[in-house]
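Q: My labmate handed me this sequence with no annotations at all. I'd like to see what the chain might look like in three dimensions before we decide whether it's worth expressing. Could you predict it?
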Amino acid sequence: MTNITPFHLAIDGPVAAGKGTVSRLAADRLGFLYVDTGAMYRVAAYLAIEAGVDLTDEAAVTELVAISAIEMHNPLEAEKDGRLTTVIVDGEDVSWKIRTEAISAGSSKVAAHPKVREILVKKQQAIAEGQDVVMEGRDITYRVLPEAQLKIFLTGSDIIRAKRRHLQLLTRGEDISYEDVLQGIKQRDEQDLHRTTDPLKKIPEAWEIDTSELSIEQVVDMIVSRVAVLRSL
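A: Here is what I predict for the chain of 233 residues:
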């Protein structure tokens, strides 16, 4: 009998470690759906900011997330404008609107709310059910997809990550200094590592890959090769 169990590849790691690009390319090579869970927390921050809701108001943010329809799919031909994934909220394409530094900072704040996380984790699990996915975020390996066949912790030095992030923002036309980006990444790391609910952490069974001295292509090749081995077992 043919094994039809979907293959789940779970990737965790700090901001700007290359998770998005690596996951997107690996998903393309494997023919999997790429799911950026961080985008969902960005959506939560976006919804709150647009509605004028205080990001620290857990009940209000949770309500906004609960009533909103969040969809994600690999970019269609007409959507290939540099985005890694297409994010639709209540019928509106917000793929680029959620990629500002303000939304990035806000996403870490709303991600600290247990009730917001509870709702989004269920949405993420529903997306993965029944299909092959490459899902990346901060708590995928142990919280969202604990039974994933391959778990990876992608990391890198904060200096290298800040340089990558700064270049990305400059390419998008955002006027921000490298020093501000580095400080933002350090603050984000501190928040993600020390939040009380589902903090960023490397679990023992996760394969750690330090991307500091590796090219994106090298990392993708390593992952695709590992998946091929596991699927042949």
